[in-house]
Each structure stands twice: as C-alpha cells, then as structure tokens.
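Lab notes, practical 5.
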Amino acid sequence: MRKIVLVLLAGITLAGCKTAEQALMEAGKKPITAAEVTALRSDNTISVQTANGYTGAGFWKADGSVSYKADSSSSFDSKGTYEVKADGQTCVKWENPRMTSRCVRTYAKEGGKYVEIELDGSEGVTITKVEKGNPRGL
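Output from the prediction step:
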C-alpha cells in the first residue's frame, strides 16, 4: 500500500512539472521561423545571459561560422559553426570542449529579447541584445 501511495505521489508531482517550452506554448508563443532565425543571427552580434547570470556575446557570420567571447572568463571563449534548419532550429558546434554543442529553438520575448529552448524543453540562454555587424571585434 505504501509503495502505491509513493508511486501516485511521484506521478502527481511529475504531472505538475512543465518545461519552459510548455509554458511558452501555453502562453500562445511559437518558435520563430527559419527565415526569422536567419535574419536574427546572420552577420549580427548577439549578447546572451545564462540562467546563472553569466553573460557573453557571439558574432554569427552569414557563412555559418560563429565566434563567442564570455564576459567573465576566457575559458569559455570559442569559435564554431552553426546551421539554421528548415524547422527553425539553430544547431551549433563549438571548438572549445567546455562549450556544449547543441540544437535550440528560439522564441521571441517582450522588449526585443529572445529565449533559446533546448530540445528537451528546458530554458537555455536569453538573447538580451542584437547588434548589426561586429562592433565588438569578435
């Protein structure tokens, strides 16, 4: 009987948990399109902030290359390549093994910000600023 109660409680707890992506979808948000992702990234410098408060910026060239510099530690600086897939996912492969190569979906937020959602539905980085060109010399 005790095992049944524990299993039921675990099921209720898990059922109450939703991913960041589920919350966005319930609020009527949809990922931006491949064309919108391309326009957002192509030849632009994108500033980001992690959930832990770390910040940095990357210059995303139209040729599919990217150069990233962390504001707090050069151990996370990296170059890499990216691809925008037909469904709007951005997949990036970093040269620095400390950086996680991954694919994300991008959702628009208020105030010109965006949030990147990992494929498991969890929240990735928040895009806090988009600048034309490479004003930081990345």
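Observations recorded by the TA: The beta strands are 44-49, 55-60, 65-70, 78-84, 90-94, 102-108, 114-118, 123-132. The chain has one domain: 19-132.
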